[in-house]
Amino acid sequence: MSSTRLVVMGVSGCGKSTIGSLVAHALGIPFVDGDSLHSVENVAKMAAGTPLTDADRRPWLAVVGRALAQTDGPGLVVACSALKRSYRDAIRAQASDVFFLHLHGTRELLSTRLARRAGHFMPADLLDSQLATLQPLQPDETGYAVDIDQPVSEILKQAVLAAGSGIQTEAVAAAVR
Length: 177
Prior knowledge:
Elements: E1 4-9, H1 16-27, E2 31-33, H2 40-47, H3 54-69, E3 75-79, H4 85-94, E4 99-104, H5 107-116, H6 127-133, E5 143-147, H7 152-165, H8 169-176
Parallel strand pairs: 1-3, 1-4, 2-3, 4-5
Helix pairs in contact: 1-7, 3-4, 7-8
């Protein structure tokens, strides 16, 4: 039996941690919030409202990739923004069989969610920089995109179906419809 290596990706406020933990529970595998893998310096920078640079992210992405690659047993789910193709490639360089679940929504929905969120180091005013950085999954990437403007139960259903299939984005999209 092969391990499931899944990254739940998207901008701040899309529900990476919530959906990631639910998918992990449904699949019976551990969950790691990628935010907990950031350096103290990165967290301080984001908390101050300064977007991370690619140089800031490189070591963090290596840690995320290693966590996925070194997982024992049935697998691991990691919540990680993975906004650019190059970031996903950095993770894939360590864990080539990783599957990306992209949670996406409108700016308005994301802003509303961020405004309601308390106690998180990522300020809502960094949303626009994240949206500007975001490069959606490409058809040649193993993954699936889910619109977050629907009930959590439907997002979870689509996510578990997609993660369990391990097939390309277009084929999974057709199977869920």
